[in-house]
Amino acid sequence: EEAIFLRKKITLLRAFSLLIGSMVGSGIFISPKGVLKNSGSVGFSLVVWFSCGLLSMFGALCYAELGTRITKSGGHYIYILETLGPLPSFLFLWAEFFAIRPANSAVVSLAFGRYMLEPFFAPCAAPVPAVKLVSLLGYYMVLTLNSWSVTWSARLQTALSVVKLLALALIIVPGMMLLAQGHTENFQDAFDRQSLVPDKLPLAFYAGMFAYSGWFQTSFVREELVKPERNIPLAVIVSVITVIVGYMLTNVSYYTVLGTQDVLASPAVAVSFVQRAFKSLISVVPVLVALSCFGTMNGGIFTFSRTLFVASREGQWPPLFSMIHIRRHTPLPAVMLMFPLVTAMVCIGDIYHLLNFFSFSRWLFIGLATLGLIVHRHRHPELHSPFKVPLFVPVSFTIICLFTVAMSFYSDPVNISIGCTMVLSGFPVYYLIIHRQMSDRCRTLFYYLTHKLQLLLEVVQQEIKTY
Length: 467
Known about the structure:
Blueprint: H1 12-23, H2 27-39, H3 42-69, H4 76-84, H5 86-121, H6 128-148, H7 150-180, H8 201-212, H9 228-257, H10 260-265, H11 269-277, H12 285-313, E1 323-325, H13 332-336, H14 339-348, H15 351-379, H16 392-411, H17 413-424, H18 426-434, H19 440-457, E2 459-461
Antiparallel strand pairs: 1-2
Helix pairs in contact: 1-7, 1-9, 1-12, 2-3, 2-8, 3-8, 3-9, 3-15, 3-16, 4-5, 4-15, 5-6, 5-12, 5-14, 5-15, 5-17, 6-12, 6-14, 7-9, 7-12, 8-15, 8-16, 15-16, 15-17, 16-17
């Protein structure tokens, strides 16, 4: 009896929780190994962590302005569509669906499974099949919750954001206590230039930026935000500063307790830290870290389903995925679509190969989105934006993103080439399916199948525009 549309249920607190919950996830607990491995020393790895935080702040400020200029949900996709056109936006959507998002979700899911099982098998490593099974169970739980209720997904995200900050505090406090007692031996000769390999630095940045990734999440749910012109910039600035401070202190704590070889040899850095520094919490911290990863999975599903929802509404994805459940008011088809790809990547993937695989495509399109901000400013100088950043912020962020993407071809040519091929494979699909009209027979069959699925899933088109 009531109108079917996505309600504005995301307040400032929930926006802040969405950002914190998406950024503080598996990254800070698995990326220190990748950053250290590719930066070469403790000192350079800390520089990379701070640089990634500063770069994330630049990107977050650009997206905050885009979110006040462009009033639709959809994040990277809608920003590229509105500023650079339909072809690059479809290429992003293609790469995001088939490479970026399932690989990212698989990384977080595998981290969840590993930390959840670590206390039961310590000091041995948990069996890989068991890790993958628990990873999939965790992912399916989040998938079910997002299909069931927007409100409960948002509440879970708020609760788990508190858990994430508690997990960081349990690592930071004992580390700072040991540092204050004079345990600085692991910081001796911190900037060892002999171990620095410049062409590996892009991979160090990929690992660091993966830990910070999530600063763009409010842009995916813009139409569901309360007072977005005020709440987007405020939530972005406060959350990114909080995470930068937390990550720097966490890494200093890691290196206070663990040496370089300890970090590189550890399959789960946070667990190794607790085993060495705070044995009384040996069973608590891994569970907190696993719950932290659980929150990141929840945030990822919550936001990416909106990308598919908006792309379908814009005519670049099948219309079924712009439909909403008649009672739950959730974008049920868009939420469920990632199920098979994530399952496949969890079953066959390795965390660090997946990390490099999807990072190339992600940062290429984020760089294009901020390039789109510069283009949009030039095309629409008359457009008033309630939040505006200095021009050097999008310019410098775009240059750094595209330069890092170009350099990564030298660092990991195999995985980066796979990612590049995945993006380019979208060209023929765009021209054969999107750009060119379907025949009448194909259109009739397509709408027949859509109608049957619509009846099965109990979903309908949104009745009220929210942008």
